[in-house]
Design a protein that fits this description.
Blueprint: E1 2-6, H1 13-28, E2 34-39, E3 44-46, E4 52-54, E5 57-58, E6 66-69, H2 82-88, H3 90-100, E7 104-107, H4 111-117, E8 125-126, H5 133-138, E9 142-143, E10 148-150, E11 154-157, H6 162-175, H7 177-187, E12 196-197
Parallel strand pairs: 1-2, 1-6, 2-5, 6-7, 7-11, 8-9, 10-12
Antiparallel strand pairs: 3-4, 10-11
């Protein structure tokens, strides 16, 4: 299974890096997966708290089974972050194209708003960061008040740290509870599985 996590200027660091670490630990625990950070075009991005991340892969060069879309800076309505990506339109178009091709989608925090802008949450159960829930509902999604919402081929999570629970949920769903438990022990984290809405 190939997992692509798409990053962009203004992305929240934890939204992207936390799932990356869970997935790579799952790989080390025996899960047949490959996880990559990618961008639409840039070689390096600057995340919301100033962390610079070098990226080797372009989304168009990958053939992912799962695309993870982090959020960041939605409420700032600035020149970087999820809002800027939504307004630019290229990332939502790429998300919609991949979903039409059969790629599963997952979103962390306001990455859910990028899925909404792509039209993939219309009429679907979803969640996002608390500050954007009204906008998600207004976009046509069926808002669910949960930390992680599993709607089959579209899985969304609430704010920042919920990305850990989203990743653990997906590891358990795709590779089994034993692998997820091994990763949880290694990372000394107790996933909030009870917070997953299916």
């Amino acid at each position: 299974m190939q997992i692509a996590i798409v990053v962009f200027d203004g992305v929240d660091e934890l939204d992207a890096v936390a799932p990356f670490e869970v997935f790579d630990n799952a790989r080390q625990a025996g899960a047949d997966l490959d996880v990559r950070l990618c961008t639409l075009a840039a070689d390096e991005i600057t995340a919301s708290h100033g962390l610079r991340i070098g990226v080797d892969d372009r989304l168009d060069d990958l053939d992912p089974d799962l695309l993870v879309v982090p959020g960041g800076q939605w409420g700032a309505r600035g020149e970087t972050g999820a809002w800027a990506e939504a307004e630019d339109g290229d990332l939502p178009e790429a998300i919609a194209r991949l979903h039409e091709r059969g790629v599963d989608l997952a979103a962390v925090c306001t990455g859910g708003m990028l899925l909404a802008r792509a039209g993939v949450t219309d009429g679907r159960r979803a969640t996002t960061h608390a500050s954007a829930r009204d906008e998600l509902e207004a976009s046509g999604a069926e808002l669910v008040d949960a930390r992680v919402v599993d709607d089959g081929d579209v899985v969304t999570a609430g704010g920042v740290t919920a990305g850990l629970d989203l990743a653990f949920h997906l590891v358990g769903r795709e590779f089994g509870d034993e692998v997820a438990a091994t990763v949880a022990t290694r990372m000394e984290y107790d996933p909030v599985e009870a917070a997953v809405y299916r």
